[in-house]
Amino acid sequence: MATIDLAFEVFGESSDPALIILHGFFASSRNWRQIAEKLADKRRTFVLDLRNHGESAHHPIMDYPAMAADLLAFMDNQGLQTASLLGHSMGGKVAMWLALNHPERIDKLMVADIAPVSYQHCFNNLIVALKLLPLSDLTNRKQAEVFLAEAIPDLSFRQFLLQNLVLQDGEYRWRINLDYFQQAAAGIVAFPDTANLASFLGKSLFVAGADSDFVKPEQLYELFPNARLQYIADAAHWLHVQQPKIFHEKLKAFLDAN
Predict the structure, then answer these.
(1) Are residues 133 and 198 in the same domain?
(2) Of 61, 62, 120, 161, which has fewest CB within 10 angstroms of its CB?
(3) 204: which strand partners?
(4) Owning domain of residue 179
């Protein structure tokens, strides 16, 4: 399987144990920089741009086996025999897929508000709305925000998505390939078949927003029998943004425990 060289930032001392952070769909490493800096006090912390996101290269194939292969190649290129993984949403599924297929490469697994299951929601209307944005008519980002308001009413979510809108040579363009996103979206919502895989017996922490319905206990323990599941009150899917202090404390306690 052809792999992509992933763009990344790294924090912490090279002599410390490695931690790799994986973002969600439409996000990038920049969304995790503050948490990475906090976790880097005892760990060499890498924040990656997964394929088709951030500064990483684009490729028409964007599924979990391909993204996990990119991650494995990244670890090999960095000389990381093992690392702890933290993944949110799509990034959590990448982390889980790698753990299930290469458990020997994982120290500790942390998954934020996602389970190893296929969901029923659909990104198509969202992606269509982004594709309809009249890029050539834009003179500022506020215009884009207003244009998308009807299709995407949540202001904070619109602003998050518009981090992918960049000004280049005086014109706005999408940093992401929306055609590739549209082709891959159904697979991102799903999870690959695990029928022939052994359970991951390593240490794993699942942290979910109490106001989110993405993670239920019965979805976890067949594949991750040693998982701990913890909920964060007053948080939904974006728990790391809504309750960053508590989120960080839970991760730190898990990482520091023997």
Answers:
(1) no
(2) 120
(3) 109, 227
(4) 124-183
